[in-house]
């Protein structure tokens, strides 16, 4: 009701300003296409305006058809017909009519969809990209752009479907493989994501985004495998023979080091640069310990380059319980996993 009132006020304020000027065909077409109120409400408001102000054009069969296709109902057509100027057959002078605007085409929907994306209105963008695809289904850019709109709505499966269609039309597009790789990763398909990033590099070896993500996923895969091995080793019962202190090894691998093993666990500083750049994720730092549990070296082996230095600094300032071989404290090694999130 509020939207109808606003629309009605707008129409009749314009009428007052124009001193009850007659309405042109363009006025009706624009009013019918407005989305401020429902179509029945637009018809009702425009019908009253036609009766009050009159019209500047003659209602020909062609114009009547155009109005009906735009959404005009019978009452509005009758009101326009009753106010339409009568053309005398004997007069050689034809009434001046406004040109009928051309119907929206493929380029129109593409452009308007882009403006919706810029505003963050992804639902409207998807509707316009879909209309553009109906008019021309051979442009891969429409599928890519609609896929990105779905991605921003977190509809990752629909995004992947559109990326698949785009690659069917343009199979050597490196960035479309990158887009699909991110969508696959969001769905938890790390192997498919890695395959997509590698495929992107096949078509463009200079694609830095693909290169960085290949390394990141491979590092995470290696880390997961190491963690699984360490877990399996920790769960496997080991018969440790009693050894003399002289038989103790120089160093023991401790696997993943957590706060439970730490006497002081220092957390890394999340830099403003990384936070503003929306950089997040896990960083794995491999460390060595002396006999007292102090960190003697720290090296980040995986994770975003912008996050590694902070993780290494935190690891060096941490301290852990000494690695023990029986009753003998020895040197140790292991790795720490830091998880950088924007909410931390």
Structure, briefly:
The protein is 54% helix and 13% strand. It is α+β, with helices and mostly antiparallel strands.
Structure description:
With about 350 residues, the protein is of the alpha+beta class. The chain folds into 3 domains: about 1-85, no CATH class; about 105-215, Alpha Horseshoe (Serine Threonine Protein Phosphatase 5, Tetratricopeptide repeat), CATH 1.25.40.10; about 250-340, TolA/TonB C-terminal domain (2-Layer Sandwich). Helix content is about 55%, strand content about 15%. It is built from 14 helices and 7 strands. It has helices spanning about 1-15, 25-35, 40-55, 60-70, 75-85, 105-120, 120-135, 140-150, 155-170, 175-185, 190-205, 210-235, 270-275, 305-315, and strands spanning about 250-255, 260-265, 280-290, 295-300, 320, 325, 330-340. The strands form 2 sheets. Strands 1, 3, 4, 6 and 7 form a 5-stranded mixed β-sheet that branches. Strands 2-5 form a two-stranded antiparallel sheet. A hairpin with a 5-residue loop joins strand 3 (about 280-290) and strand 4 (about 295-300). The protein is elongated.
Which features characterize this protein?
single chain, 344 residues, alpha+beta, Serine Threonine Protein Phosphatase 5, Tetratricopeptide repeat, TolA/TonB C-terminal domain, 3 domains, five-stranded mixed sheet, two-stranded antiparallel sheet, 54% helix
Q: Would you identify the CATH architecture of the largest domain?
A: Alpha Horseshoe
Number of domains: 3
Give the N-terminus to C-terminus distance in angstroms. Answer: 45 Å
Instruction: Flag low-confidence runs.
Output: 1-19
Structural class: alpha+beta
DSSP summary, beta strand count: 7
Largest sheet: 5 strands, mixed
Rounded mean pLDDT is 86
What's the CATH class of the largest domain, please? Mainly Alpha
Please name the CATH topology of the largest domain.
Serine Threonine Protein Phosphatase 5, Tetratricopeptide repeat
H-E string: HHHHHHHHHHHHEEHEEHEEE
- Rg for CA atoms: 34 Å
Shape designation: elongated
Q: Please state roughly what percent of the residues sit in beta strands, choosing from under 5%, 5-15%, 15-25%, 25-35%, 35-45% or over 45%.
A: 5-15%
> What count of helical segments does DSSP give?
14
Helix content: 40-55%
Q: What is the CATH superfamily label of the largest domain?
A: Tetratricopeptide repeat domain
